């Protein structure tokens, strides 16, 4: 008998995603490069704390979780779009090579970095983000809408 409720499944999923995110952040912090002067200035306007700790890692494709449960869930709730251009995991930001140093994309990801900080780290961010994607959908998730709006404002200056 399967006694799991959807909420239990969401919690299990979030825990798996958080483990994966911590590993990926560690990789970016080891292999990535610091923000440029302009990116640092944007990060300060966005409200990122300790922007000097942020690292960008240029990749051919943003990594996707290998765990089958996460892969299926990511596809079903669009936690990760089919071919994301970037992905922020608190201080570690993956940037797809064709968008390397793309100001608008990096500003968007830096808003997510600020959200990780505001919400208290990787696990609380993912709890909120996954819940929002599962309920209102990825494009309408408030954390996503905030990133879109703030990045547009920062880049219009
Ligand atoms: Zn986003």
Biggest sheet record: 4 strands, mixed
Element-level helix/strand string: HEHEHEEHHH
The average pLDDT score comes to 89
Overall domain count = 1
Structural class: alpha+beta
Computed over alpha carbons, the radius of gyration is: 15 Å
Helix percentage: 55-70%
Molecular shape: globular
Descriptive terms for the model:
alpha+beta, four-stranded mixed sheet, globular, binds zinc ion, 6 helices, 4 strands, single chain, 157 residues
Question: What is the topology?
Answer:
Blueprint: H1 6-31, E1 33-34, H2 37-46, E2 55-59, H3 68-77, E3 86-89, E4 92-96, H4 103-119, H5 122-135, H6 142-155
Parallel strand pairs: 2-4
Antiparallel strand pairs: 1-2, 3-4
Helix pairs in contact: 1-5, 2-4, 4-5, 4-6
The site of zinc ion has 4 residues, from α4 and α6.
Characterization of the model:
- The chain has one domain.
- Helix 1 (6-31) crosses helix 5 (122-135) and helix 4 crosses helix 5.
- The protein is globular and about 50 Å long.
- It has helices spanning 6-31, 37-46, 68-77, 103-119, 122-135, 142-155, and strands at residues 33-34, 55-59, 86-89, 92-96.
- With 157 residues, it is α+β, with helices and mostly antiparallel strands.
- The N and C termini lie far apart (58 Å).
- It contains 6 helices and 4 strands.
- The mean pLDDT is 89.
- It has a 4-stranded mixed beta sheet with strand order 1-2-4-3, with helices on both faces.
- Bound molecules: zinc ion.
């Amino acid at each position: 008998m399967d006694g799991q409720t959807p909420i239990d499944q969401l919690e299990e999923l979030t825990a798996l995603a958080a483990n994966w995110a911590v590993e990926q952040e560690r990789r970016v912090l080891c292999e990535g490069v610091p923000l440029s002067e302009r990116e640092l200035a944007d990060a300060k306007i966005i409200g990122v704390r300790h922007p000097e700790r942020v690292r960008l890692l240029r990749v051919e494709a943003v990594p996707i979780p290998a765990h089958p449960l996460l892969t299926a869930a990511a596809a079903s709730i669009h936690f990760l779009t089919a071919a994301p251009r970037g992905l922020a995991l608190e201080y570690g930001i993956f940037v797809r090579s064709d968008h390397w140093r793309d100001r608008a994309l990096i500003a968007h990801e830096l808003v997510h970095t600020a959200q990780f900080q505001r919400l208290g780290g990787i696990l609380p961010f993912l709890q909120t983000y996954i819940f929002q994607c599962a309920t209102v959908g990825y494009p309408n998730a408030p954390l996503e809408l905030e990133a879109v709006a703030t990045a547009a404002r920062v880049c219009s200056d």
